[in-house]
Amino acid sequence: MKTPARALALSVLIAVAATGCGAGQNQPANSNPAQSVTELAPVVVKSGFSGKGGNINVLMSSDFQTLDPGNSNYVQTANVGQLYYRTLTMAKETAGQPPTVVPDLATDTGKVSDDGLSWTFTLKEGVKFEDGTPITSADIKYGVERTFAQDVFTQAPQELNAALDAGGYKGPYKDPSAVLKAVETPDERTVVFHLKKPFAEFPALASRSNTAPVPKAKDTKLDYTNHPVSSGPYMVESYNRGKSLKLVRNPHWDPATDPNRSALPDTFSFSLSTSQATISQQLLADSDPNAITLDSNGALQTSDSAKLADAKVKDRVASGLLGCNDVLSLNTQKIKDPDVRKAIALALDRQSILVQYGGRRFGELTQSPLNAKMRGYVETELELDPTGKPKLEEAKKLLEGKDYPKTLTYGYANNRDAFKNTGTVVQQNLKALGIDVELVPIPAPNYYSVLASEQLPDMGRSGWCGGADPASVRTSADPLLGPNNDGTSYGFSNTSRYFDPVVSKAMFELRNTDGTSEELGKKWSEAFGSALKTYPIVPLIRSHTNSVVGSNVRNAQVGYFFGGIDLSIVGVEQ
């Protein structure tokens, strides 16, 4: 799952950058240089708190890409979204571990038909919108229908939609008479999904924001982001785009129907335009004891890493391994030759890029966005040096006799130095190949919209947090490099715009292939590996996040999927 300034989903992509200290150097909380960040125990700040009341101040350097659950493939929106919308199932976080799928609006995680082609969910009794109106199966179906309108909602999550036997359905706007037969509502509390092929991991797809209920009468299309109608414990009181957001309690949320969200604070106040340097300084100094941030790696700056060991700071640092991987995405429509892309990959000093992310306390180099904890995972052997050192001579040989672009653009979200500094490393590395790289800043809230537009740069940093099920190969492989819903072009999360007639066809057919998660995971790994060996993306870093919180903040847990403080359980001492 994406985020505009980093950290799903999931849908979606994430860039979890951090602070600068030497790769391989001893770090606070990682005094053994040989110790992998995957071995570091997660830290939850002052867990076990159950007091209600107070306000949490969330300091952020930029606005959310959107608050509309139907147009969101971003982990930051998913994190704050769990406060004001609910879904049929929910990915419940545990620090340092992949999330567990649990019932949310539904009474269970779904019942599958004997042939595996239908999943039935029953809504809990007593669930209501913020105005007291009961939530019905029709509201769930309409929420799903909206996400098919990709002409309106360009970032709508598509993993669930790709699994449905939806024919050519294009959403509720172009042809209001069209019917989404893949979702049935036989009564007000029952939702039935019909699939193309059996999909054992479908309960995880039902946790995506597609299934957040939307009352049709309140749908204002793109303006819905200004006030999404709440089905969760909080609702929007005010939203000043680019400046502030305030969430207050939803009086019609019934905690008896929702064991997953403790909803401890009375309010959440978001500041959406504080510089990351200021956020970092304020959190380290504890100038606001009620403050947290959702920015990547706690908005920590290059000089801040050593301060995490200070006596007044170390007990306020939440940390944990994420299911998130950063990659360098190469625009295959501009850099068409796989050998040229491979040369770029081999020329990169990934070790220096890790320094820009803060060194080994904040992540480790990877050879693939997939990992061995995924069901059915098969390793792909790339020719990248696993320690991150460049292979410049091999890169130069690949370019001999080639006609390749001598000038390329590198786009980066403009809200933190680490993103720009990574581009500077790429710029320096490719200069040795005779390629000039122009760094192009992109406003952070618009970053992934630009990557999905005609203004797509030639290269850009992006990432992925495992989608609906971080233990599934498919929910990472398919969005990252898979085709669109009809198999004719690249998929909407596929920022490299990779499409190969053979490999992409194989991925498309895998969506309609029977088998266990392990069997299908192996096949998806192999197809993804075939694509990866043509270097549409260059694997960079798997992230470990550190986030400083104010001294009054309790239950501060870094979500494996969210990449930031999990808002569903956080509290504040008054």
Would you give an account of this structure?
20% of the residues lie in helices and 19% in strands. It is an alpha+beta fold and 574 residues long. The strands form five sheets. It has a six-stranded mixed beta sheet with strand order 13-17-12-16-14-15. Helix 6 (338-347) packs antiparallel against helix 8 and helix 12 packs antiparallel against helix 13 (517-532). The longest helix has 16 residues, at 517-532. The model is unreliable at 3-31 (pLDDT under 50).
Brief synopsis:
The protein has 574 residues and is an alpha+beta fold.
Number of strands: 19
Radius of gyration: 22 Å
N-to-C span = 35 Å
Low-confidence stretches: 3-31
Note the total helix count: 13
- The secondary-structure class comes to alpha+beta
Described by strand count, sense and barrel closure, the largest sheet is: 6 strands, mixed
* Percent of residues in β-strands: 15-25%
Strand order of the largest sheet: 13-17-12-16-14-15
Q: Estimate percent helicity.
A: 10-25%
| Average pLDDT, all residues | 89
Morphology? globular
Write the layout of secondary structure elements.
Elements: E1 55-59, H1 75-84, E2 89-94, E3 97-103, E4 111-112, E5 118-122, H2 137-146, H3 159-163, E6 183-187, E7 190-194, H4 202-205, E8 234-240, E9 244-249, E10 267-271, H5 276-285, E11 291-293, E12 317-330, H6 338-347, H7 350-356, E13 363-365, H8 392-399, E14 407-413, H9 417-431, E15 436-442, H10 447-451, E16 459-464, H11 474-481, H12 503-510, H13 517-532, E17 537-548, E18 553-554, E19 571-572
Helix pairs in contact: 6-8, 11-13, 12-13
